[in-house]
């Protein structure tokens, strides 16, 4: 039960870090950046730090060669931001985020259909509450484009594949944490370099302040949040991690209201309440379930 709770906390911390990312992203955009270039830098600037941490903290850990399972994890990990950021050019970011965050439901389906995992009814209910809550963050009347919707949906599918397959692949047992994140982010650098070239979004003319915000965002998300999430998935499982990670858009909305003077409506408040209710309900049910399992017969 202790490991389960630790995993939940790690995932929630990761979600908060990811959710704060738009605050720093706005600063980068104001200093000459753009979403696709920032996504490239997010991966690229993390590589030196991850390499040093790996050599310093895991000097004797065997560095296994990548196998098919790792490449499958890497593909789903790398494709997600690429698809999502392209969708931002087609539809409003709020709508794209809403579509992307149906991925917890897809995770549950994958866990059930592909990995034959049992899923308690309460998780379906919590997942439903989360999706409705995120949907309420979307402003009615935003521009809709079929290709943009498809790309956002594909980003949900690829990220669901990453979350569901990461613990099932056992790559975390063969690679040290820093090694795994280093290799995944290296894959992200390659794909996003190609994407920036094709879209003409290179923005190396950032101001010094812009580069500092970019570095802060990179180390906070591509290193800190990513590793917290990976460890959380390992401890509490893909199903719980998918639902708890919906705290990310909630954090973004709250930060926008508090720090960016964004509007707060009854619709948004209701969305926040539904997501918090889902997280609280799942936490209580999991805690009680584990406590009953630990009780002597």
Automatic annotation (TrEMBL):
EamA domain segment(s): 6-137, 147-283
GO cellular component: membrane
InterPro entries recorded: EamA_dom, EmrE-like
Cited SUPFAM superfamilies: Multidrug resistance efflux transporter EmrE
Keywords from the UniProt entry: Membrane, Transmembrane, Transmembrane helix
Membrane spanning residue stretches: 7-26, 32-50, 70-88, 94-115, 122-141, 147-168, 180-204, 210-229, 241-260, 266-285
Entry keyword Transmembrane: yes
Family: Belongs to the EamA transporter family.
Protein name (database record): DMT family transporter
Species of provenance: Oscillibacter hominis
Taxonomic classification: Bacteria, Bacillati, Bacillota, Clostridia, Eubacteriales
